[in-house]
């Protein structure tokens, strides 16, 4: 009887695939220890990994190395843990587990439940970062642009006139239809600016954004600013919307550098700009309004 993994290889069963070649397949574990937990298998069914011929075993590990680089680039973590257990499924496989502490690798930990939309998002993000791999998951959304594939542009105008800017195009996709909820609601609008020379001081930020020079400026970490919107059900009780905010947060923290949130003004309506440096030296992100009474 074919193993469950062989049934995935044949297409009989679905999977959140992240990479594939003629001999190997990588896909997300549907009962993961942590988000991004990935399985790497040979397509040829072999029960015990160390029964594989040396050349096949070496090729499997080289493929796993490429997948691990994709996982590390897409999922915030300190290292990618590697494990071979060999008791769960009679088909050789390698576990790649994003980890921040040793306990993340403990298979006695309760498995987590990850929503389908989030699994698709993770699969697409990892697939986009695997060097030289093909995303074999037809059900996943289009992968996020990778730094390696993004075309640079010489345009330094704001986002409304910088449609050719890869980062802004991605931000337009990620923010489309998203609304920041405070005591009122405000849309998220993608923006792009020419970065000033040197450090982005409060004074430089106010000048860049066209705000009054005496306006109050507070900076905040993006994760903290979006914490209510990236919670499991978000502020609207909608997991799909929460997952979209998570995707936006992931993009801004990984594809942009030194991302910060600038809160400008004293209320009741505070202008908010979330900005980070693009690979070609611009500032990009989104703006919205926070209402505080």
Task: List strands and helices in order, with pairings.
Blueprint: H1 4-10, E1 17-20, E2 24-28, E3 38-42, H2 54-74, E4 79-83, E5 94-99, H3 116-129, H4 166-175, E6 179-181, E7 185-187, E8 189-194, H5 202-209, E9 217-220, H6 222-225, H7 227-230, H8 239-254, E10 257-264, E11 269-277, E12 282-291
Antiparallel strand pairs: 1-2, 2-3, 3-5, 4-5, 6-7, 8-12, 9-10, 10-11, 11-12
Helix pairs in contact: 2-3
Structure description:
This protein has 293 residues and is an alpha+beta fold. It folds into 2 domains: 4-129, 2-Layer Sandwich (HIT family, subunit A); 159-291, 3-Layer(aba) Sandwich (Nuia). The protein is 29% helix and 23% strand. The strands form 3 sheets. A 5-stranded antiparallel sheet has the order 1-2-3-5-4. Strands 8-12-11-10-9 form a 5-stranded antiparallel sheet. α2 (54-74) crosses α3 (116-129). The termini are far apart.
What topology, given as strand order, has the largest sheet?
1-2-3-5-4
Helix amount: 25-40%
Largest sheet: 5 strands, antiparallel
Number of helices: 8
CATH architectural label of the largest domain: 3-Layer(aba) Sandwich
- The domain count comes to 2
Secondary-structure-based class equals alpha+beta
Which CATH C-level class of the largest domain is it? Alpha Beta
What is the fourth-level CATH superfamily of the largest domain? Nuclease A inhibitor-like
Overall, the morphology is elongated
Nearest-angstrom radius of gyration?
A: 22 Å
Written as H for each helix and E for each strand, in order along the chain, the element string is: HEEEHEEHHEEEHEHHHEEE
Report the average pLDDT across residues.
Answer: 84
How far apart the termini lie comes to 65 Å
Instruction: List low-confidence stretches.
Output: 134-164
CATH topology of the largest domain: Nuia
The total beta strand count reads 12
């Amino acid at each position: 009887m074919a193993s469950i993994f062989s049934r995935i290889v044949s297409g009989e069963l679905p999977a959140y695939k992240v990479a594939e070649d003629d001999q190997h397949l990588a896909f997300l574990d549907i009962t993961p220890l942590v988000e991004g937990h990935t399985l790497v298998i040979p397509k040829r069914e072999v029960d015990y990994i160390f029964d594989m011929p040396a050349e096949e075993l070496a090729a499997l590990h080289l493929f796993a190395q490429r997948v691990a680089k994709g996982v590390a680039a897409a999922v915030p973590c300190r290292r990618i843990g590697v494990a071979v257990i060999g008791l769960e499924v009679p088909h050789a496989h390698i576990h790649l587990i994003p980890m921040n502490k040793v306990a993340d690798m403990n298979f006695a930990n309760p498995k987590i439940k990850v929503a389908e939309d989030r699994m698709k998002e993770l699969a697409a993000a990892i697939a986009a970062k695997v060097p030289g791999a093909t995303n074999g998951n037809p059900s996943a959304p289009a992968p996020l642009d990778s730094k390696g594939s993004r075309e640079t542009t010489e345009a330094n105008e704001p986002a409304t006139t910088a449609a050719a800017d890869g980062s802004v195009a991605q931000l337009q996709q990620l923010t489309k239809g998203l609304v920041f909820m405070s005591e009122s609601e405000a849309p998220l609008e993608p923006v792009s600016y020419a970065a000033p020379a040197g450090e982005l001081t409060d004074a430089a930020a106010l000048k860049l954004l066209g705000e009054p020079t005496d306006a109050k400026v507070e900076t905040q970490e993006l994760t903290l600013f979006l914490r209510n919107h990236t919670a499991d059900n978000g502020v609207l009780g909608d997991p799909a919307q929460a997952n979209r905010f998570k995707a936006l947060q992931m993009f801004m923290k990984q594809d942009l550098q030194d991302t910060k949130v600038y809160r400008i003004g004293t209320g009741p309506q505070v202008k908010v700009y979330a900005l980070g440096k693009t690979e070609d030296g611009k500032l990009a992100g989104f703006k919205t309004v926070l209402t505080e009474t």
